[in-house]
Amino acid sequence: MSFDSNYTMTIDGRATLSSESMDVLNPATEECIARVPDASLDQLNDAVAAARRAQASWAALPLARRQHSLDAMADLLASHTDDFMRLLTREQGKPHADAKAEVGRCVHWLREYAKRTLPVSRHDDGAGHLFETHHVPIGVVAAIAPWNFPMTLAIWKVAPALLAGNTVVLKPSPFTPLTSLKMGELFRDVLPPGVLNVVSGSDRLGPWLTEHPGIDKIGFTGSTATGRRVMQSASSRLKRITLELGGNDAAIVLPDVDVAQTARALFWGAFRNSSQYCLATKRMYVHESIYDDFSRELVAYARTVEMGNGAAPGVGLGPIQNRMQYERVKDLIADAHRTGVKFLLGGSVPEGKGYFIPVCILDNPPDDSRSVIEEAFGPVLPLLKYRDIDEVVRRANDSDYGLGGSVWSRDQNLAYEIAGRLQTGMVWVNHIHVMSPNAPFGGQKQSGIGVENAMEGLQEYTNVQTRVTLIN
Ligand code: TXE
Which InterPro entries does the record match to this protein (predicted)? Predict the structure, then answer.
């Protein structure tokens, strides 16, 4: 299989092209690296119809067969790790090491889902009735992925959906369709036709898919604004939804930390994937007594990290993934200049090819500045001073978002107690961004609805059915 050309959609197990196509750019060079099909409405209808046809027999297979298919998908991905790594870097921009880690994560998640069974709970009411609760498939799932982690966030939906006995129509972002199309091509060998359909398309395709009457459940990761639109589309037929949306995660650094070590860990917490990460640290609250030391360490470490084409050796940070986002982040930087915020690092954007924005660290901007309130989704980090714990917890929670956060202190108990006061779905103590297929992840407030991963995430791809029988 070539990873450099011939990208086809997968509809009913067959390679499918379209009369229209779209260009895919490498964000590090702005060169067109591929043309991919721009699905028509008829083709989407075909994909949904194929998924509907395939669903009953897929669900009727013994669970062990579906588990085996997930393992086979993991094997295929693992055996093409370097191909996917290179392709992911070319379409998304992230450094090879991060791309390889992303492929590895997909393999790991598939393998862990392949071990899962769905629980059946039983209750005898003592009056001659046995209540038996099963988790049954919902039907056809629309899996919609964004451009920051195109492979991970696709697999996080596809794996549980398939294991639970649903069939899927996967739609990648128009900015990063290549790895999803290749996964679809690869998995044709191990999945029956119609079980996993992969369609690529322009901006019209998402709404077509979420409004489609043949879709029963939507698994979506993207912005809060688009999440609202998805929820609106779902409402007409009460489709089930899981929404993983934006975040504005706070890190709270207490005065007793090892400053150099914490600054280095939090540099990556804030800037990995060039900060295009729903769980990136987007507000860094540092106690006033160590603020100057901490900012010096953070800036010094930032200067050692190379930004460039993710395919080049030694590069730690790649470009912003697309022009729209690049312009958005530049606008945030311009706003900081306009409003007189001091830059500890960065603040200008180089001319030339590629959507490169060097790391910007802002010196204690006001709480009501755009850089503090908005999800930057790019390397613009406000470093903020605080004085006491109640104050910083209040400021950290003063956000419409509630996705993640972290607390850093030598006093593990105190940090743990503060972590519990954050209104977020995920919070780390003295480290950051370790995720597990066995731990649920989801947002509070406007960061989402429902969770992904673990048994809780798997159950979101099921309906509950309670069967009541008579006990003789
Ligand atoms: O995301 P969208 P965009 C944030 C980030 C960024 C902003 C916009 O702040 O600046 O979102 O990025 C599909 N019905 N995040 O516009 O629109 C779309 O094709 C159904 C946060 O790229 O949310 C893509 O596949 N689907 C985020 C996916 O939704 C629709 C990750 C996400 O696109 C649709 C990415 C519609 N009406 C960006 N409109 C995170 N939380 O990780 C678009 N789509």
Answer: Ald_DH/histidinol_DH, Ald_DH_C, Ald_DH_CS_GLU, Ald_DH_N, Aldehyde_DH_dom, LUC3-like
The minimum-distance atom of ligand 1 relative to the CA of 403 is: 41
Q: Is there a single domain that holds both residue 235 and residue 330?
A: no
* Backbone torsions φ then ψ of 345, nearest 5 degrees: -155, 145
What is the whole-number distance in angstroms between the Cα of residue 320 and the centre of ligand 1?
15
Ligand 1 closest atom vs CA 227: 23
User: Is there a single domain that holds both residue 92 and residue 194?
Assistant: yes
Residues identified as active-site: 244
- Identify the CATH number of the domain in which residue 287 sits: 3.40.309.10
Identify whether 3 is part of a domain: no
Q: Is the pLDDT of residue 472 over 90?
A: no
Q: Are residues 296 and 273 in the same domain?
A: yes
Answering whether pTM is above 0.90, one says yes
pLDDT of the residue at 4? 87
- Helix (H) or strand (E) segment spanning residue 380: strand 380-386
The reply to whether 20 falls in a domain is yes
Substitution candidate for ligand 1 out of 38, 377, 426, 452 with most atoms within 8 A of CB? 377
Atom 27 (ligand 1): residue with closest C-alpha?
A: 222
pLDDT at residue 70 is higher than 90: yes
Q: Does residue 238 carry a pLDDT above 90?
A: yes
**Ligand 1 contact, 180 CB (< 6 A):** no
Residue 59 lies in a domain: yes
Residue of 94, 87, 102, 72 whose CA lies nearest to 6: 87
454 pLDDT higher than 90: yes
| Domain encompassing residue 311 | 250-429
Structure confidence at residue 1 as a pLDDT band (50, 70, 90) = confident
Q: In what helix (H) or strand (E) does residue 370 lie, and over which residues does it extend?
A: helix 370-373
Given a cut of 90, is residue 259 above it in pLDDT? yes
Measured between alpha carbons, how far is 251 from 254 in angstroms, rounded to an integer? Answer: 10
Q: Is the dihedral of CA 174, 179, 180, 184 positive or negative?
A: positive
pLDDT in tens, 304-319: 999 999 999 999 999 9
Same domain? For 208 and 344 the reply is no
Tell how far the Cα of 218 is from the centroid of ligand 1, in angstroms: 14
Query: Chain-wide mean pLDDT for the chain?
Result: 98
Distance CA 463, CA 296 (A): 53
